[in-house]
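User:
Note these tokens:
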Amino acid sequence: MNRKSLIKTFILTSMALIAFAANSVLCRLALGSGAIDASSFTVVRLLSGSIVLLVIIGVTRKSSTQSAKGSWAASFMLFLYAVTFSYAYISLDTGTGALILFASVQITMILLSLISGTRLHFIEWIGVTVAFAGFVYLILPGVTTPSIMGFLLMTIAGIAWGIYTLKGRGSNAPLLDTAYNFFRTTPLVLILVISTISKANYSFEGILLAVISGGITSGIGYTIWYIALGGLSSTQAAVLQLSVPVIAAFGGVIFVAETITFRLAISATFVLGGILMVVIGKFYFIQSGNE
């Protein structure tokens, strides 16, 4: 990969991870405060993502020669992730939920990568371990014993997101694929609406947060992520997502005037150091071994 491609991948990956962190905050604000119920949040999130992306396609369609693909399998995984994540969020605290989610994503993506024939260099294993240790250290104070249902739901969410991510690595039309993946969730969304409408609970604030989450940090954020995946291995994509809680924590420092704690500084060092080992370590070690 040349320097220009590396810079592009770095910028796009950073933007996607920031979107993920922002999305986590929006979900916490909406569901944690009871501004909207889990089902309504999922419905509004997925529908607003579909609408925003389809509008963008409508505006840019004339200049695009790419054909839409997407897949029903990816759409199902997107819906499964969104609905289980929302319901898990109301029964788990933030630290515990993050630990279960990102552990599930890591295990799913690395395991499927190994099954497909990919072999990790020892420096990648070390990097994954170091980054995960830093991630656990950051959220450890907030971890409590989870409920069985919350644990299962968040584990399913992590597995679904890991598979959805892997399905996007070969995308040649990220915007179209993401848009139609969102759009294809509509039948499942309608089933969800019909089955939960009697328990709907929402407010203007809750709907607004869900719209922002769906249209911007999910719809546009996932499109950027699909583009970035073209320059990342599955292992790199998996371990990079461990930085999301760290980014969210620093967002609190910047936007909510929270203080930089010793724990945050140590965690960031471990997570970013581990990511660096995974992203560039294998390349340099293999190159040096072939010289």
The mean pLDDT is 86.
